[in-house]
Specification:
heterodimer; A: 2 domains; elongated; B: mainly alpha; two-stranded antiparallel ribbon
């Protein structure tokens, strides 16, 4: 069959299909979107269209016709084979089953990330007890004095700089700052894990140095009563962000039976699930830090008690949540 | 006339479950750079707008502004890729979009992966690693695209069909291969878009087939094309 006849014969079918595509296209303004009569057998028309495309290709019909059919088939392919973005387990299923299970399943990676984070942290904190000037090798002097100001037991507003505003402002600040750090820790895994390694160790050192310094000058009570509450979620989330990054790095360094690219693709799907959890935990941490930890009126004893409960909660959550079969 | 299309073309074939091969044209670093710049300007504008509106709300507004900034920094592309057919405003303006490398629409998960890994592509400065990865990989994938399994392709607007000029059909003197026939038909399709001089110049190449030059040669080729299209 020659091209003109071919086009004349099937044109109506192609136009019908195009109309169906346009009726679903949300980038076309609503009033210009055509209505579509639902009785047409779309999958059948689509298969016909595929057939026409390969005929047009093999019969060397004009480039324009082939391109037209190609575009139409491609759009149809994208609609008919699109995957649902909805997670199979839903939000509740993720929080109460999938996420804690995933962390338990990769417990070695968790402890590796924890070691990389807490190791340098405890190391430098201990070293500062012996030679206090070490704090300046990690944190610049002006920042050290601002930390001192923030956790001064005589200070009016614990955990805040003199120029920072109220609780909600700080909430926004913690959201932006902490979650960005979490994302960077994850993304650093793409550099064969080196970026993640850097962020874990560096953040560990900074936190350890601040804690060590404030302990050494006797501000321990104000500092620890401030950080213990949100620390449960925040520090654990940073470790999990590290896990996500190390998971990417491990896929690149040791892909096993897969190609590096395939290993990376599979690992990034798993890592992404960890990152979902990290986001959630850091939002909770930001909330606690802005609206609970900063309340100077609450006695340190109560803060320690609540903080201990929060740590226990995180521990129990990761140890036991999702042990039973999902409903 | 045999050209190895695999080498000089950026067309990426994907096979559908129906067994047909679809062609996608992947977008290179330059046009993606432009799209990124347009989006940067739009985002900049949005910062100003939000800064202005939210500053009226005092420190509550400032807190909200920080959250908005966070969302714009990381999720601006994700929103458009997932809910606006794979294209941020910049990409849409330039006619490119993000899809999965199996040809399906980008999912929330792959969009998140490619955009959260943007930070690494940006290193050591101005998308250095990203550019390197794009030039080094097939299909111009930056690191985020490699991990997410996504590609950026041209979203071709269908051009109006240019009908091939009616001429009395004429059988070519020699039998032409499939590719040669295709070339002649494409010449006939595009000939109205060329200047007459360019048409003649191209037709002259086939002097030993048509046996003439200039105007008559062009006409001859159009006649062959008409014959090949089956207009008898």
């Amino acid at each position: 069959m020659n091209q003109d006849l071919f086009a004349a014969k099937y044109q109506a079918q192609w136009q019908l299909f195009e109309q169906w595509l346009n009726s679903l296209d949300n980038t076309i303004p609503k009033d210009k979107r055509p209505k579509f009569d639902a009785t047409a057998d779309i999958p059948h028309i689509y298969r016909q269209l595929c057939h026409h495309l390969s005929l047009a290709q093999s019969r060397h019909y004009s480039a324009h016709l082939v391109e037209y059919l190609n575009q139409l088939t491609l759009r149809g392919h994208q609609y008919l084979y699109q995957t649902r973005t909805k997670s199979a387990v839903g939000f509740q299923g993720f929080v109460f089953h999938e996420f804690p299970r995933l962390i338990r399943e990769r417990w070695k990676l968790f402890w590796l990330a924890a070691l990389l984070f807490y190791g340098p942290s405890l190391g430098i904190a201990a070293a500062i007890q012996i030679s206090p000037e070490l704090v300046y090798s990690v944190i610049p002097p002006e920042q050290v004095s601002s930390f001192r100001y923030m956790y001064d037991p005589q200070g009016e507003h614990v955990g805040r700089n003199r120029d920072s505003g109220d609780d909600f402002l700080m909430f926004g600040f913690y959201i932006r700052n902490n979650i960005s750090v979490g994302f960077q820790t994850f993304a650093g895994g793409m550099l064969f894990g080196l970026g993640t390694l850097f962020y874990l160790i560096y953040n560990g050192l900074v936190i350890g140095a601040v804690a060590g310094h404030l302990t050494e000058i006797g501000y321990a009570e104000t500092f620890y009563s401030f950080v213990i509450g949100h620390g449960s979620f925040e520090l654990t989330a940073i470790v999990i962000a590290g896990m996500a990054g190390l998971n990417l790095g491990a896929a690149l360094v040791r892909p096993g039976q897969l190609t590096r690219l395939e290993a990376l693709k599979q690992a990034s799907k798993v890592s992404m699930k960890m990152v979902y959890g990290v986001i959630l935990m850091l939002v909770i941490a930001a909330f606690l830090e802005a609206f609970w930890s900063s309340k100077g009126a609450i006695a340190p004893g109560i803060k320690f008690a609540v903080g201990a409960c929060l740590w226990l909660f995180v521990l129990v959550y990761f140890l036991f949540a999702g042990r039973r079969r999902a409903a | 006339m045999q050209v190895n299309e695999a080498i000089i073309d950026t067309r990426r074939p994907i096979e559908t479950p129906e067994g047909v091969e679809l062609g996608l044209r992947v977008a290179g670093p330059i046009i993606r750079g432009y799209a990124w710049f347009i989006d940067l300007c739009i985002r900049g504008g949005m910062y100003f707008l939000f800064a202005f509106v939210l500053s009226l709300l005092g420190s509550l507004g400032l807190g909200l502004f920080l959250i908005v900034m966070f969302l714009l920094e990381w999720f601006y592309p994700v929103y458009f890729e997932v809910y606006r057919k794979g294209a941020t405003p910049g990409k849409k303006y330039l006619g490119i979009k993000v899809i999965n490398d199996d040809g399906t629409e980008v999912t929330l998960q792959s969009s998140l992966i490619r955009n959260l890994l943007r930070g690494v592509d940006f290193l050591p400065f101005m998308y250095g690693f990203g550019l390197f990865a794009m030039l080094y990989s097939r299909d111009f994938k930056r690191l985020g695209d490699l991990a997410a399994g996504t590609i950026v392709v041209y979203q071709d607007k269908m051009k109006e069909a240019v009908p091939i000029v009616q001429e009395a059909p004429r059988t070519p003197p020699v039998s032409l291969t499939a590719n040669e026939q295709k070339a002649v038909i494409q010449f006939a399709e595009r000939h109205t878009l060329f200047t007459p001089q360019r048409s003649a110049e191209l037709a002259n190449i086939l002097e030993n087939v048509t046996g003439t030059r200039e105007g008559p040669a062009v006409k001859r080729l159009l006649q062959y094309a008409n014959w090949m299209l089956g207009r008898r």
